[in-house]
């Protein structure tokens, strides 16, 4: 039986980020296999009220929702309801007859016909050519997506697809990578194939079987006291500048506290640390799982063509990072990654909720905080490095 690692340096590091007023509070957990070998809460769920952060507090998990949606559509793949390389136009006619923005275009109308249909695999890997209107301000696609209101939660997913229909693709399907509304499209696809609302499908096929009672698309009034406060840092360009400003009303005044017609499979869920642990355990070998072992293996391997990597406008190409069916895959560790993290499967949310699974080492980690633009923030990289170091000691 391996000894339990000393996670004192991990807790001290997270406390340092809280003490420096970079995070209000942060919860974390570490698993070896399916066993939780570290779990701790640091700081506060509400700075103004000085409420200590507890395991049962709720977090806006934003793009961690993508993991749930990816698992949901893979359940339908296992049932034979749809194939990974099936054109999704068979279900979503708004994705037919796509056009692609020409390289170097200065007008959103400067397009050419797409070389191929968008497939389910393209959507799962963000290689469909869709965009987001989120992380690339000033670009043609950003302006077009914002103007279209294609991500407006006040309208149904079907209406969102109608608004998406006239927008061009950034590149021909399968020839590039761009973080996008693809997982929201998957949410609508799940509704069409299953004949159920996305929330109903999630509850019946994922949350219920895994006992995830705290996870959903909105927090009822009697549970609002458990919803962790949301903060923005002092300077977007300097993530280590101390200072936090409360922004509970982002991205809208009633976000996550009222039902909306358009349930976002890309970023709409609220969850807790124990619920996210239950979800992660279902992806790990050695116990009950929702997906078959071969599906999980397929999910966690890179599906991008050789030489292709993920990337964002702010960072450029992230060399060494590919993408699986719902999360990034570390092909070669960078200076920010633990040296033993090759093949790691991971992703996170824009408010700083992160998960990662390392098939090679058997380690998995989970971080939960509420800081705007907290995805791949320095605290997350330091946490992971210290966890790997503690486990190897």
Shape: globular
What share of residues are in beta strands? 15-25%
Count of alpha/pi helices: 10
Q: What strand line-up does the widest sheet have?
A: 3-2-1-16-15-14-13-12
- Rounded to an integer in angstroms, the radius of gyration calculated over CA atoms is 20 Å
Main pleated sheet: 8 strands, antiparallel
Which percent range fits the helix content?
25-40%
Total E-strand runs? 16
Integer average pLDDT: 96
> What do we call the CATH homologous superfamily of the largest domain?
DD-peptidase/beta-lactamase superfamily
| Terminal CA distance | 15 Å
Structure class: alpha+beta
Secondary-structure arrangement, i.e. CATH architecture of the largest domain: 3-Layer(aba) Sandwich
Which series of helices and strands comes N to C?
HEEEEHEEHHHHHEEEHHEEEEEEEH
Number of domains: 2
